[in-house]
Amino acid sequence: MSTQEPVPGAVDVEQAEAALVEHYPRLVRIAYLVLPPSLGRDRRVLTAHWIVQRSLPRGRTARVPGAGGAGVPVPRGSAAPGYAYVRGRVLRQALVAGLPLRRRAWPRRVQFPPLLPQVWGLRLAPRSGGADELALGRQLSALSGAARAAYVLRALEALPDAAVRQVLAGAGVADPHAALAAADGLGAPQRGTALALLESPEFDPCSLQARTTDLMRRRRHAKAAAAAAAAGLMSGTLLGLPGEGWAPAEAAAPPYTHHPATEAALDPARLQRVEPLAWRTSSRTDFSVWPARGALSGDLALLRRALTVWARPGAAVRVSATPGTPAGPPMGAPQLLFAGVVGRARVVLFHDGVRVVRYAESYEGTDGGPALDFARTDSADAATAGALLVGRGSDGIRYLTAPG
Predict the structure, then answer these.
(1) CB–CB of 302/338 below 8 Å?
(2) CB contact at 8 A, 341 and 322
(3) Going along 149-245, which residue ranges are E strands?
(4) How many other CB atoms sit within 10 Å of the CB of residue 174?
(5) What is the spatial distance between Cα 286 and Cα 62, in angstroms, rounded to a whole number?
(6) Distance CA 318, CA 394 (A)
(7) Positive/negative CA dihedral, 170, 172, 175, 178
(8) pTM above 0.90, yes or no
(9) Which residues contact 75 (CB under 8 A, 6 or more apart)?
(10) Cβ pair 274, 387 in contact under 8 A
(11) Residues contacting residue 321 through CB under 8 Å, at least 6 positions apart
């Protein structure tokens, strides 16, 4: 599969283009394997193709990073001299794409999702493999980007360790030795197994299956966006009206105005409640199939207070939200997940299709005002919708787990 053909220190754009065209599926597979699995399969596919397609030299010629005049194994073919350069560019961009955004550093373009192509309502993903491929994918997801790159170069590219260190250094990895050591944690790749698994359809972003997204969730998101825009417009208008303001000791602020849609969202009788056994027959695995649980799930007064504080939190309410989560009012009747006593507090959990909202009030009235917490869940699946934090105190942390 590979040979020790010497790679020159510089390649021209024609050689790089020939290598990219000839080995395009292989380069996209490398990018897909090195990209962080946290991106999701659909975004990893699009990002991998986008990275490879922007890996040509910017000028007429370019130097191969880390070549140093030494021979680096590359696939056979007339385009071999440019392959090392393109592969290095692909690795560098895939590694940068997995870095977290930092406040004191300018973000790189590759750290953001590709603008095009984008197809609304369509998800693209490689075909699912067997249990061995799934196990390898989970093991790779636990590694750093540099360690994944080391494993892929070893197994898929059949590079010896010295060449792997050279390619990783050229791709900008600060410590190639540590990357190889981390890759060793998965066991030395055996050509009969590791190569077969990495070349399986599970990791082939050029052989795809297309599926629609969650249509009901898309509809809820569209309605939520429209309602949020209308609420923002209404709030901006009403902020200019004269008034006395919010009383500092009130949990819920006085309503701006009486609106039928808003009043409907605050009616506990309209809360969505999933049947207790609906999750057994549903194809969905997120919070939308969780039944309403808790000893206070029928306490309409508590539920009304929770909805009212969510819609109009007063100055005494402690509000927190995870990064990227909007802390706005309900855009319709949400789903009830839990209502009950946890420690010394009454706790209510709602789900509106985009967020999980936790309302907590002191059971004895001695622990300050209510608390309102927001967490974004629009990308939750079976792996990330396993439990929700209900309470944290001196007696420990309590979770509401998925039905099952």
Answers:
(1) no
(2) no
(3) 208-212
(4) 9
(5) 48
(6) 19
(7) negative
(8) no
(9) 1, 2, 23, 26, 83
(10) no
(11) 327, 373, 374, 375
pLDDT tens string, the chain, 404 residues long: the values are: 444 344 445 777 888 888 888 899 999 999 999 998 888 888 888 888 989 988 888 766 666 655 443 455 555 443 466 888 899 999 999 998 877 766 666 666 666 666 555 566 667 778 777 778 878 888 888 889 999 999 999 888 889 999 999 999 988 899 999 999 998 877 645 545 788 888 888 888 888 877 666 555 555 666 666 666 665 555 454 344 443 333 333 455 555 444 555 566 678 888 989 888 877 777 676 788 889 999 999 999 999 999 989 888 888 888 888 887 888 888 778 899 999 998 888 999 999 888 899 999 987 655 667 889 998 876 665 556 677 888 876 667 888 888 86
Q: For the chain, how many residues are written?
A: 404
Residue 91's Cβ-count burial label (10 Å; 0-12, 13-18, 19+) is: buried
β-strand pairing of 335-342 with 345-351:
antiparallel
Q: Take residue 256 and report the two structure tokens written for it.
A: 């701006």
CB 330 within 8 A of CB 350: yes
Q: How far apart are CA 228 and CA 313, in angstroms?
A: 16
379 neighbors 353 (Cβ within 8 angstroms): no
| Residue whose tokens read 């500092």 | 248
Taking residue 198's Cβ as centre, other Cβ atoms within 10 Å add up to: 22
